[in-house]
Design a protein that fits this description.
Elements (H helix, E strand, L loop, with lengths): L9 H7 L3 H15 L1 H5 L1 H17 L1 E2 H6 L5 H20 L10 E3 L7 E7 L9 E3 L3 E3 L2 E3 L2 H13 L3 E7 L12 E2 L7 H13 L9 H22 L6 H32 L4 H23 L13 H5 L4 H11 L2 H10 L4 H12 L3 H11 L21
Parallel strand pairs: 2-8
Antiparallel strand pairs: 1-2, 3-6, 3-7, 4-5
Length: about 400
């Protein structure tokens, strides 16, 4: 995920410090510079700046946490692993070697932000929100869940399909020292590694207005980075790596299930039926998705057999926004997989190739991605065996 910070804003954030009045002043200056639309978002900018600054204030260097005798032993051990991941990211993955993820903050809540995703009733195209300081993104993030829910309710009242999802980590593109957070530090080791690699990847390449490109690229980097991490740190046969492999195989099945029904809905919405008929077919398609999930959970041959990890997702009222939000993070991953293979598994060369892609006009960039690979799915850790050139997640 990308936070609302852009190039040139580092000095502004530093000057704000902990003083709320300066945060509000910065928001007012944005309003003045960019006119009535920005003014309408004054409260949103204020909560974004204050929320991020509160996270930064809570952060302390990981070295200090490790050295502090009051730090719980389990947390100390995990932070030591995080330090190793951070060094690995710079040394082996050619990711930025800066102060990001060298501090840790306990923020005392389950997620750092809650993202609001929305689509029209009969469309899978995520709505975009455009801001003077970040460009256009396919979600709107809130540091307070009640604020996210209130905004989501307003969108629903207007007829949109809406999804509110908790986010454990985000990136400010390297313009502040993003900390490791209590929201994810106790995840399984592979999950912690992939989150750190993912967020650092956003500092390598970022295209304003193309969330699917940005997130799919970052997922591709996290996949390859985590595979290499396990290959270096104990091998792919270790218990931790085995658990990660199973988790990713389950995620692959989950994403493939959603993608199949997302494609069916896309065909439906593009078809000639009238809106009332599309609404009936839409309800039937989501009912079929629920039934298919129940079937794979009852299938002894499925990685999801009797697995409850996705029950919460399927317990909610699924809609277009749920499916579109997942696709944002997975839709272009196969194309980036292919591109890394074309670059011989050389990550610096891969990053340069992605930068060239990022510099293309949108239609040419999408055409190149279409030519590179499909538009769905994650790749399970077991799909390929080469330790040199493959991307896996």
């Amino acid at each position: 995920m990308i936070a609302a910070v852009r190039r040139g804003s580092r000095a502004t954030l530093a000057s704000l410090g902990a003083h709320r009045r300066l945060v509000i002043l910065a928001a007012i200056l944005v309003c003045t510079a960019f006119g009535p639309i920005a003014c309408a978002s004054l409260g949103y900018y204020t909560q974004s700046l204050e929320g991020h600054l509160a996270v930064l204030r809570a952060a302390r260097p990981i070295d200090d946490w490790v050295a502090d005798p009051a730090t719980p032993a389990q947390l100390r051990a995990r932070l030591e692993r995080v330090r190793a991941m951070r060094r690995f990211a710079a040394r082996e993955l050619a990711l930025p070697d800066n102060s990001s993820y060298t501090t840790y903050a306990d923020i005392n809540r389950p997620f750092v932000v809650w993202n609001v995703f929305a689509t029209p009733e009969l469309s899978l195209r995520l709505r975009q929100w455009c801001f003077p300081v970040v460009g256009c993104v396919a979600y709107r993030g809130y540091y307070d869940k009640s604020a996210a829910d209130a905004y989501a309710d307003a969108l629903r009242t207007g007829g949109d399909d809406v999804y509110v999802g908790g986010v454990p980590a985000y990136s400010t593109l390297g313009y502040t020292a993003d900390p490791v957070l209590s929201t994810f530090v106790n995840f399984p080791e592979g999950e912690v590694a992939r989150l750190i690699f993912h967020e650092l990847a956003h500092q390598v390449v970022y295209v304003q207005g193309d969330s699917t490109f940005n997130e799919s690229f970052a997922v591709a980097v996290e996949e390859e980075g985590t595979r290499r991490w396990f290959a270096t740190e104990g091998g792919l046969d270790g218990a931790t790596a085995t658990a990660y492999r199973l988790m990713m195989e389950r995620k692959r099945v989950f994403v493939a299930l959603l993608e199949r029904h997302r494609q069916a809905l896309s065909d439906l919405y593009a078809g000639p039926a009238d809106d009332d008929a599309k609404r009936v077919a839409k309800r039937a398609e989501f009912a079929a998705l629920q039934a298919d999930y129940a079937a794979v959970k009852d299938d002894p041959a499925s990685p999801l057999y009797r697995y409850a990890g996705y029950d919460r997702y399927f317990a909610q009222a699924l809609n277009n926004a749920n499916l579109a939000a997942v696709a944002t993070y997975t839709q272009r991953v196969p194309a980036f997989v292919k591109l890394l293979a074309e670059e011989g598994g050389d990550l610096p060369h891969f990053y340069e190739a992605v930068r060239r892609l990022a510099g293309l006009p949108t239609d040419l960039r999408n055409a190149r991605l279409d030519a590179l690979g499909g538009t769905s799915g994650l790749h399970a850790l077991t799909d390929r065996t080469s330790d040199r050139t493959t991307i896996t997640q």
